[in-house]
Design brief:
With 115 residues, the protein is mainly β. The chain contains no helices and 11 strands. The strands form 2 sheets. Strands 2, 4, 5, 6, 9, 10 and 11 form a 7-stranded mixed β-sheet that branches. The chain is globular, with a radius of gyration of 13 Å.
Amino acid sequence: QVQLVESGGGLVQSGGSLRLSCAASGITFRIYVMGWYRQAPGEQRELVATITGGGATNYTDSVKGRFTISRDNAKNTVDLQMNSLKLEDTAVYYCNCRFVSINYWGKGTLVTVSS
């Protein structure tokens, strides 16, 4: 059974930092592209960042230079370090793993940025 369990969300002031973590089980972790997506209230879910098994990364423009995605293939974890957080970063953040047409999602963790 595949499980993706996110942790690390919470309330933070604008300009602050948070680190999200996702623990994966039930998959051959290293072959999956891991990603973080987010969904703000009333908005569609959007890509934040992805990382391949080899460590190649991709970021949406709005988080470039502020967020860093990383993974540990030995521990089956993927992290998202979020710095210089802005009000518009408030959303539920979801962990995702993808291999060809196979997609799995975590249940999400809420990040709230306050002024």
